[in-house]
Amino acid sequence: MTYSGGGNFVGNVIWARKRGKDNSAKFLSRNHEYLLLFAKDINLLRFNRLEMPDQTRFAYKNPDNDLRGDYRTLGLWARGSQGGSRYSFTTKTGLFLSAREWLVGEETMFELDQQDKLIINGDKVYRKMFLTEYKGDIPETIWDDASNAANAADEIKSLFNYQVFDTAKPTPYISKLLKIATLKDSIILDFFSGSATTAHAVMKLNAEDGGNRKYILVQLPAPIDPKKDTVAYDFIKNELKAEPTIAEIGKERIRRAGEKIKAEMTEKDSQQLSLLEDKSLKANLDIGFKVFKLDETNFTQWDEETTDPAGALLRSVQSIKPNRTSEDALYEILLKYGIDLTLPVTELEIDSRKVFSLAANYLLVCLEKNLSLSTIEEIAKLKPQRVVFYDDAFKDDVVKLNAEQTLRKFGVEDVRVI
Ligand SMILES: C[S@@+](CC[C@H](N)C(=O)[O-])C[C@H]1O[C@@H](n2cnc3c(N)ncnc32)[C@H](O)[C@@H]1O
Predict the structure, then answer these.
(1) How many CA atoms are closer than 13 Å to the CA of 274, on its beta-carbon side?
(2) Residue after which a domain boundary falls, among 133, 161, 184
(3) pLDDT for the residue numbered 321
(4) Whole-angstrom distance, CA of residue 51 vs CA of residue 33
(5) Per-residue pLDDT tens for 1-23?
(6) Residue in 220, 228, 229 to alter for ligand 1 test, most ligand atoms within 8 A of Cβ
(7) Positive or negative CA dihedral for 239, 242, 244, 245?
(8) Model pTM?
(9) Are residues 108 and 178 in the same domain?
């Protein structure tokens, strides 16, 4: 059954947002904030367990040198209202345990006894829980270990040297969410980027665990009020020399946070450093990002479906709108093809013409005009699966007519014009 709306509610987390307390409050110092968790489809939701906190790890010991390693002990008798099942039990060594409420059923008790996991101390019965059996910590609804607003402000200050933003979230808070709800290769979408804490937290976590999570942040170019947010306004005007918008702050945060994380990684101890240099962690740490602005199409008309490549070449004349660059056009083509926008784009020079190559020449896009047949042939020799040209890219009608033949000769089937 697929739930919608309220059916996908996961829980309400209480986050201890305030570091100190507000002694000027009338009745109570409000120290917390709520985090409402919803799944897109709760049936598909998978949460990860969290790492064991240090204080829990300390509880694992091995006083009797059990070959199975460190363990902690858990009492097996039910207390007060805990409930349980009532039975008496005789261990394999013949020890009789009188009837009482146990936290585990009789079958489990039998198995624990068979596996030498019972510790009997007078009337008290415990089980050994080995570290190797530990499957991670279940996330709880009260978060007092996810940093706080004051630390978030410090994070911003240490990156920018100015308090350009004072309502950001701290990265450990976002990081905790990422640890619970993402995989190492997840794509994280934040529709309200603000100061781009999400990007910072994603890069940091990737640096920590070698993940390759990606992020998509959305932010309106919300103007910064020079009177209300003077520090941010002056910073952008004077230091960045950019438009005073929240989006510009976010972009600069990503740049600075990425550089900082890289610098911190290289500071790691020599053993880890050599590991990073040799292996995947450092190589994988990707701090690059691309910025796209929402706009109308770059083309006067887009040829959506091409089932007939030959016909496509001859179809109606298209043109790019004025004031749009070939990069603008390229990325729109990628979007329309459903090609990952994060794929590296290589610029080739073929016959002195600029050609964009994607995914090892899987797609070649040439957005130049006045193309000759020899240029077409050089492009065809790279054996792309798909090629895109401007409709009016060809030197003359003869070239246009022969282009399709030439491309087909080299096995290029998917030819599109825009
Ligand atoms: C409170 S900030 C997010 C703070 C962020 N978590 C951080 O740590 O910096 C929310 C942002 O969402 C943007 N925003 C608000 N309404 C929006 C909307 N309808 N569409 C897109 N962005 C919006 C605002 O410009 C604001 O910068």
Answers:
(1) 2
(2) 133
(3) 79
(4) 24
(5) 666 788 999 999 999 999 899 99
(6) 220
(7) negative
(8) 0.81
(9) no
